[in-house]
Amino acid sequence: MKHIRDIIETRIKERGPITFEEFMEIALYDPKDGYYSSGKANIGKEGDFYTSPYVHKVFGAIIADFIIKAFDLLEEQSLSIVELGAGKGVLARDILNHIKINFPDHYKHISYYIVEQSTGTVNEARNNLARHKDRVRTLSSLDEIEDGKITGVVISNEFFDALPFHRMKFSEKNLHEIFVTLEKGELVEITGNPSKDELLGYLSKLEMDFRDGQEFEINLRPKKFLTKINSILSKGLLLTIDYGYLSDELFSPERMKGTYKCLYKHTINETPYVNPGSQDITAHVDFGNLIRVGETLGFSRVIYTTQGQFLLDWGILEIIAGNEEGEFSEHEIQSIKNLFLPGLMGDKFKVLIQGKNLQDAFKNFYPESPLKISFKVL
Description:
There is one protein chain. The chain starts with a helix and ends in a 22-residue tail after the last strand. The chain is α/β, with parallel strands linked by helices. It is globular. The mean pLDDT is 90. The protein contains 15 helices and 16 strands. It has a single domain (2-356), classed as Rossmann fold.
């Protein structure tokens, strides 16, 4: 996009090389032409990528069951649901549809906040959620929620992976940062000293031996979001679903070039400087960091597992087995299996559940299926 390219070039000419985080912020979130904020992000079969809610509505139904159990155990008169990066409201629609049909008494006491900064996308979300307009409030930022106001569940599904990140490189026994600059009219990468002391502080919490030439990403923004969530959530659960690893595995030398990638029409590339603003840029989430930051804020870890195991634990096999009346076609059954089977979305995505001010109320909250999907927990 020419507008995006012009902004980036002007920024570099005025200030010198910029961090990859700043480049990514412009490319994805520029108000006029950013990939996400302008509404160009195309999710679904014909788009650039698809997420679990777009695979089948069962995904939202299972999260709805999770929410209802949380509601019952919190023993509150009302429950708030906050969804970060709610996009077009597909997940919110499936959750609320399931609750309205199956738990009508609970439905009347639910408030659903969708947090989405793209005006165009919010308008689509309002259309998708028209039948639930009395239960839904759209926000552009968590700052619109008063501190201590929320009792309930905060959901993020593929949210943290899209936050702008710094790219780092370890060479000659020192940590360097990858910057973006102009050379003969082209955007190119150079390395320099880290732009923020926080980057060194992040690594100080890890016990890692990086190899010479190893590249990796550091995302400082999840800490800011968790801090804000902590301020608005008086009691409840934080449900994070994303692709990523615990720190030891994420920063393993097996990933010498890190995990960042660009997505365009279901193809993966590593060319972020080609047509910035027209494609997604993402990197795997450091779940170890989410856990560490959460613990410093007072969140307890309820469970860390794969999406496949989470869906098994919350009854996805029972849903398939109960398809005696043919509610789901064979094609739909295959789509549902894609959500939990290993080698597909089942072990690609991880689930982290954290709690605040729960004491022993949630001691027996999480169900466990006798069927286990093996995966590496470091």
